[in-house]
Amino acid sequence: MSRAFTPKVVTANALLEGDVIYLTADDRWSRLHHEAELIEDEAHAQLRLLHAQSQRASAVGPYLADARPGPDGPEPVHFREAFRTRGPSNYRHGKQVEQSHV
Amino acid sequence: MYDYTDFDEAFVRARTEQFSDQVRRRIDGSLTEDEFRPLRLMNGLYLQLHAYMLRVAIPYGTINPRQMRQLAMIAETFDKGYGHFTTRQNIQFNWPKLPDVPAILSALADVGMHAIQTSGNCVRNVTADHFAGAAADEIEDPRPVAELLRQWSTDHPEFQFLPRKFKIAITGSPNDRAVTRAHDIGLRMVRNAAGEPGFEVIVGGGLGRTPLVGQTVRDFLPKADLLPYVEAILSVYNTLGRRDNKYKARIKITLHETGKEELSRMIEERFEEIRPLFGGHDQALLARIEAAFAPPAFVNAPTDGYDLQRKADPVFRAWADTNLAAHRNDQYAIVSISLKAHGATPGDATADQMRLIADLAERYGHSELRISHEQNVILPHVHKSNLAALHAELRGTGLETANIGLISDIIACPGMDYCALATARSIPVAQEIATRFDELKLEHDIGALKIKISGCINACGHHHVGHIGILGLDRAGVENYQITLGGDGTETATIGERAGPGFAYDEIVPAIERLVRAYLEHREGPGEPFLAAYRRLGLAPFKAALYPAEGARDAA
Ligand code: SF4
C-alpha cells in the first residue's frame, strides 16, 4: 500500500529581490501562498518542479513544500513555510507589510 | 587602526568589479544559479528565508567612525535602515536586492571594507578580544597579529578550498573574552619564563553538532614564529582533513581521528620545513602593521568629576557599574554600548544609532570602535571625565541599557526569522526573556549570567558555552527548545550539559524563569554568580525547577 501523498506547492526565491515566490497553475510566480497551485499528485508535482527548475532567470532554488487546502487557497503546513509567507517576527518587514498594501 | 595600502585597495576594487560582472551575467542569464552560487558565497552573499543577506567582514571587530557611517548609509539606501552585528564580529544586511549588491560592495570598498571570505571553505574573519588594545589585563594588543593573519589568509592560493571553513580567534589577555577554545585555532597570548610574549596555541575547538573544547598543541610559541606555525597547522589540516563527509571535515574531527600527539608531531615537522622559507618577511610586515596600531595619545586630566557624577546620578551609576571595564590607563574606561535594549533584537543597530555611535567615538573615544562577539559595540578608550556626557547622549536612543553581562545581554543568532538553515526561531525568545526579566526588575540582583541562543545545531549563537544555552529545534513540525547548563566560553571553557527534554515555544520563557528563581533560592549570596552556583550544586536543583511535575511523580 502506498502512502497517501501530502499535497504540495512549488516555492522558490525570486532571483532579483530574493522574495519568496510560489508557482501558480497558470505558470506565473506569485508572492502569495494562496495563489499557488495545490498539487495533489506526485507525478504532477515532479513535472511542476522540473518546470520551475527551468525558470532560471526568475526563480532560485525551487522545491516542493507541503501544503493543505484552505478557504482562500493553499495554506502552509510547516511553521517554516508559514514564516516564509509572512516575514520575520521581530520587525514588520517582508510580506506581512507588503501584502497589506495589495 | 590599519588603513588599506594601495595593494589592498586595488585587490578589493578588482574583486568588486569581478563580482559586479558575475552579478550582471547571472541576471542576464549567462550564469546558472549552480554556477553563480559559489561565486556569490565567496563574496559574502547568501540567499536566506525571505531575502538575500550580505555578510560584511569587520576584521577582528575593529571599525572606525567613517566606516560605521558608511554602514549606516548602506543600511538606509539599500536595506531597511538597520544592520545586524553577529557573533563573528561581522555585520549582516538582511534585505539587499541582487542588482544593488555591486553598488553596496563598491560603497564598502570606498571605506576599506569588503565581504570577501565571509563564507566558503576558507579562513574566515579572524576574531579578537573586543577589548584589544585597551584592556587592563592585556599583555599586548593582539590585533597586529590578527591583521597579519588577515593579509596572509586573504586569497591565499593554498587555502581557498579547505575541507571546511576555518575560524581563528586571538586574545592578548589571560582572561579569554574571545572564546579562543571554541575555534579551529585559538591563540592566547602568554609570557614565558623569561617574560617574553608568545602564544599558547589551541587547536580543534568548535561548537556546532560536535561541540569540543580545543586542545593545546604548543604551550608557548614565540611571537616571531606565529605565521609559519599557523600555516603549518593549515597545511596539515588541508592534507588530513576529511572531504568525504561535511560533518567530519572540521579540524576538531581531524584532531580526534589523528590524535593530538600525532597531529602535533606533523604540525611541528611541517613547521620546521616552512619556517626558513619565510625569511623574515612576515616579521618586517608585522613591524609595519604594529606601527598602525599605536595607541592613541591618551589625555592626562582629572577624573574627580566622574566620581561626583556617580554619586549624584543613580542611573548613570547603574550604567557605569555594568557597562564599563578596566582600562590599562586608570584615567580611562572601556565602554560597552549595549545593543540589547529590553525587547529589541540582539545585535541590531539602526542607521541613526550607527551614526550616533560614530559621532560619540569621535567626540569621546579617540575615534576608535570595536564590535564584540557578544553583539555589542565598544568604545575602547573613553576618558573618565567624559563618561557622564557620553551617557547623557546615549539616553533616549535605545543605546543606554545598563545590562552588559546580565541576563538580558543575550547572544541570539538570526534563527528562523532570517536564516535558511534554522530549525526554530531564536530572536523572539531572546526578546521575551529580556522583557520578562526587565518586568520582574530582577536583572541586577541576578548578576552575571550569560544566556546564548541558537536557532539550529550549527550553534552560531554559541549556546554550548552559555551559562544557560538554548537550542531551537524542530520536533515533528513544532518549535522545541533544549536547555544546556554550565557552559563557559572563557579560559575555563566548558561545554554545557543538557538539562533534559526540550520545551515548546510558549514554555521556554517560563522554564528559564523557574531556572533563575532556583538559582536565586540556592545561591550562597549575591557574591555567587549563576555559573559558580551551578558548579557547586550540579544539575539536580535546576532540573527539579525545570521539570517540577517529574519531581512530584518521583515523590509520589
Ligand atoms: S545557528 Fe543555525 S539558525 Fe542560527 S544563524 Fe547559525 S545556521 Fe542559522
What would your notes on this structure say?
Chain A is α+β, with helices and mostly antiparallel strands. Chain A has one domain (8-92). Helices cover 24% and strands 25% of the residues of chain A. Chain A is built from three helices and five strands; from the N terminus they run βββαββαα. Chain A has helices spanning 42-53, 79-86, 95-98, and strands at residues 8-14, 20-23, 29-30, 59-68, 75-76. In chain A, strands 3-2-1-4-5 form a five-stranded antiparallel beta sheet. Chain A is globular, with a radius of gyration of 14 Å. The mean pLDDT of chain A is 93. Chain B starts with 5 loop residues before the first helix and ends with a helix. Chain B has helices spanning 6-27, 33-42, 65-78, 101-110, 143-153, 226-240, 251-258, 260-278, 281-292, 304-312, 314-323, 351-364, 387-394, 427-440, 443-446, 505-522, 530-537, 540-546, 548-555, and strands at 45-47, 52-56, 62-63, 82-85, 91-93, 127-128, 168-171, 185-191, 197-203, 215-222, 324-326, 332-337, 348-350, 369-371, 377-383, 411-412, 451-454, 468-475, 478-485, 497-498, 503-504. By secondary structure, chain B is an alpha+beta fold. Chain B has four domains: 6-110, Alpha-Beta Complex (Sulfite Reductase Hemoprotein, domain 2), CATH 3.90.480; 142-291, Sulfite Reductase Hemoprotein, domain 1, CATH 3.30.413.10; 309-394, Sulfite Reductase Hemoprotein, domain 2 (Alpha-Beta Complex), CATH 3.90.480; 411-555, Sulfite Reductase Hemoprotein, domain 1 (2-Layer Sandwich), CATH 3.30.413.10. In chain B, the strands form four sheets. In chain B, strands 16, 17, 18, 19, 20 and 21 form a six-stranded mixed beta sheet that branches. In chain B, strands 1-2-5-4-13 form a five-stranded antiparallel beta sheet. In chain B, strands 3-14-15-12-11 form a five-stranded antiparallel beta sheet. The longest helix of chain B is centred in the first third of the chain and has 22 residues, at 6-27. Helices cover 40% and strands 17% of the residues of chain B. At the A-B interface, helix 2 of A face helix 14 of B. Iron/sulfur cluster binds at residues 413-415, 419, 421-422, 454-456, 458-461 of chain B.
